[in-house]
Amino acid sequence: MTGGLGTRHWVTFMLFLGMANAYIMRTNMSVAIVAMVNHTALPVISEPTDTECGVLIGNETHASTQDGSFVWSSTLQGYILSSFFYGYVITQIPFGILSKRFGARYFLGIGMLVNSVFGLLVPVAAEAGFEWLILVRFIQGLGEGPIVPCTHAMLAKWIPPNERSRMGAAVYAGAQFGTVISMPLSGLLSAYGFSGGWPSIFYVFGLIGTVWCLAFLFFVSEDPEQCPSIKEAEKKYILSSLWGAAGSSSPPIPWSKILLSTPFWAIMLAHMGQNYGYETLMTELPTFMRQVLHFSIKDNGFVSALPYLCMWLFSMFISVVADWMLSSGRFNHTQVRKVINSIGQYGPAAGLFIAANTGCNPAATVAILAVGVGLNGGIYSGFKVNHLDISPRFAGVLMAFTNCLANLTGLLAPIVAGYIIEGRPTQAQWKKVFYIAGGVYIFCATFYNVFASGRRQDWDNPADDEANAKKAADKKAIKQEKKAAKNQSQAETAQ
């Protein structure tokens, strides 16, 4: 069975909703905190601005809505916002390894349930003190840690190779969909919601997240073999195409071979470059437009969400193209991954270089931002699903490592930008920020194009399982014999 809607499409849809829910939980605090803080009570430190593009006319920054009740400095707000990500990074690798051994479904469902339930506690924690709020957000991050590695592990068990571009992009595009939903809806809830406005953000999304988690745990199975409702024809189609990928009872993780694998390092570098460039593109361009062009993109909810919307739509389009290229038989997996990934990473690099030279033109900068981030959607059918190509059985573990290091790399983007433009927000300094990010994109994408592969690696060959198991058993037996002989020798000596 290759056509029509099946159980694998239901699993894909549920994973898409899970990814959307995860990004809503990740981003809603950045919107809510604006309504939570009493900005009037904070000491005012004027932000340095540049006059190359004229001076700011009028006070465009006063248009914020009513102040909240919390007097939190900008530094403290930074700690509150970042606490989620520290928890998120910590659990990536442990849950990636555990999901390989025990299965991904429970870790994903229960982890997101923890995230959602603690989201409901955010208003109470904020009232109790910022320390409690930081702790709750940190625990939310811990709960969200399994989302990417466990999603990857489940895709490896459910999706045949020739459908991975489309299905993988559909699932991970949930990140952009969640952001597009979260930003404007959180703004509306903070202004018009119940319980004083901003608390309703966490109550609404926390409840939605909890419902999704329960539905996921009750209605989604670990793999086709454990699914009671899947049709036999679809089960045979999936299992025959995956060739030993399903199930959690596969052999031990070949750590040394993975670490010596150049295709793995190609994915790693591409992922790290993506997060660095993406964070620069999305967090620093609005600051550039405020400091240099005197225009805040965040004054308009639609424009703020536009780049994410473009990325989501383009990722859907290019994933269909990628699967068509594979189905046509004219291109192999390696060629498709490299071509599509080049669009996804060279495109944003070009956008950064152009944005650095648009001069005093806010409209052009916004357009470049939308196009650059839009083209970035190619990465979902590029390196992002490449883990599934080179190692279906260990895809969750590989994604755990690359996503962990990529997120740590992404944290460097605002730090580097802040160091370069500190007190000197001129166009010349901002050019350096954009050129560095564009250069990182190009270097990492080129490394990927040289060393990446779409072929399943020899160290994930199910045909070698029996021989590897025998070799490991023989090695263990020899060790035990040597240990027994040593103990006997020591006993004889003692006598």
From TrEMBL:
Pfam families linked to this entry: MFS_1
Gene3D superfamilies for this protein: MFS general substrate transporter like domains
Protein location: Membrane
GO process terms (BP): monoatomic anion transport; sodium ion transport
Membrane topology: Multi-pass membrane protein
Stretches the record annotates as Disordered: 458-495
Residues annotated as signal peptide: 1-22
Tagged with keyword Nuclease: no
Keyword set includes Transmembrane: yes
Highest rank taxon of the organism: Eukaryota
Domain Major facilitator superfamily (MFS) profile: 14-456
InterPro entries, A to Z: MFS, MFS_dom, MFS_Na/Anion_cotransporter, MFS_trans_sf
Keyword terms: Ion transport, Membrane, Signal, Sodium, Sodium transport, Symport, Transmembrane, Transmembrane helix, Transport
Transmembrane parts of this sequence: 12-37, 79-99, 106-126, 132-155, 167-194, 200-220, 305-326, 362-383, 395-421, 433-451
Record GO terms (molecular function): symporter activity
Annotated family: Belongs to the major facilitator superfamily. Sodium/anion cotransporter family.
Name of the molecule in the record: Putative inorganic phosphate cotransporter
Natural source organism: Spodoptera exigua (Beet armyworm)
